[in-house]
Amino acid sequence: MKPATIVSMEAVLxxxxxxRAHQLAMTxxxxxxxxxxxxxxxxxITGIGEATSIGGLAYGDQSPESxxxxxxxxxxxxxxxxxxxxxNAAMALAGKQxxxxxxxxxxxxxxxxDALGQxxxxxxxxLLGGAVRTSLPVLWTLASGDSGRDIEEALSLIExxxxxxxxxxxxxxxxxxxxxxxxxxxxxxxxxxxxxxxVNQAWDEATATxxxxxxxxxxxxxxxxxxxxxHRQALRRLAQRFDVPIMADESLNGPEDALELAAEGAADVFxxxxxxxxxxxxxxxxxxxxxxxxxxxxxGTMLEGSVGSIAAxxxxxxxxxxxxxxxxxxxxxxxxxxxxxxxxxRDFELQVPQxxxxxxxxxxxxxxxYRRDRERVQVAVA
Length: 382
Ligand SMILES: O=C(O)C[C@H]1C=CC(=O)O1
Ligand SMILES: [Mn+2]
Prior knowledge:
Blueprint: E1 6-23, E2 28-41, E3 46-52, H1 64-79, H2 87-97, H3 102-120, H4 124-127, E4 135-137, E5 140-142, H5 147-159, E6 165-169, H6 175-189, E7 194-198, H7 205-218, E8 222-224, H8 232-241, E9 246-248, H9 255-264, E10 269-272, H10 274-277, H11 280-292, E11 296-299, H12 306-317, H13 330-333, E12 345-346, E13 349-351, H14 364-370, H15 374-381
Helix pairs in contact: 2-3, 5-6, 6-7, 9-11, 11-12
The structure holds [(2S)-5-oxo-2,5-dihydrofuran-2-yl]acetic acid and manganese (II) ion.
Manganese (II) ion binds next to loops.
């Protein structure tokens, strides 16, 4: 392999409308903002990556704007001139000189892997040691805010053979009303359809104890992050108390959290996300801790567009255990995207691309159309 260095890095904010309102405990989304990273190398290859958050700062403490700033002001100047083919060395340098910023680091690592894959003519999953599956089961989130509409949406998606597992976003408003909403949907979809719920940290322990008992009675199969992320002892007591598995999402970032959660028996399932871990390699390290502890693994999403979702798909394809499948449906929630070939969903699964790198390319016209700074870019070109 000929040596290549990183010559430039650009972080572009892209605003895309969603196909419908997406209601979570903490916010309602009508659009999604992607941070698309383009990393150019001295051999002419450009790698791409994506960092995305949910509802700006509603999900966590990194926003698209703060991610772009971290890249523009710190990570790009640090990494330009470094060996583009040595992902471990670049990420170690970023880890040493930049604290936190896991979303930015994930996007940059993705772009390095995409470039390396193109250079070696190998898909990213091959660079991670090889895929153990060629497609990934994908659930769908029902979050329109209306039980009747959610039921219609689920029935139609089952009919289209697109999804057969559904996650319900709850935790907003009266917990009893939340439980009634879940029970209505579970009853309408029947015993064979797995229903999971995501509370996004909205309940205190007493509320969670009462509500999870009722959710268990209603037939829910998995409860995600019922209590605030730092309330790990509460999470542990809930995981020990109930038969229904409890999944850690916001409480789990990298391998260190995984180790502590596993040692304490605080979660039955881990929601892996490349952006929380700070990259594909850190996601696999987090997964390894879970696997060593016998914890179930689930391929989570930050509701990324195609670039971020496919990056995650390469990591999840290389993950030996993935007992709970994935939720990599982000591209389907967006009205449009900025790639030339949108991901393929078939028979309830996302097909993992087999082409070099990520296996997808940017649609530069779409990127120019949806980028937030398009007026300024047009003026600069004119
Ligand atoms: O897991 C989350 O909290 C965020 C995300 C995943 C699916 C969805 O609808 O929202
Ligand atoms: Mn979640």
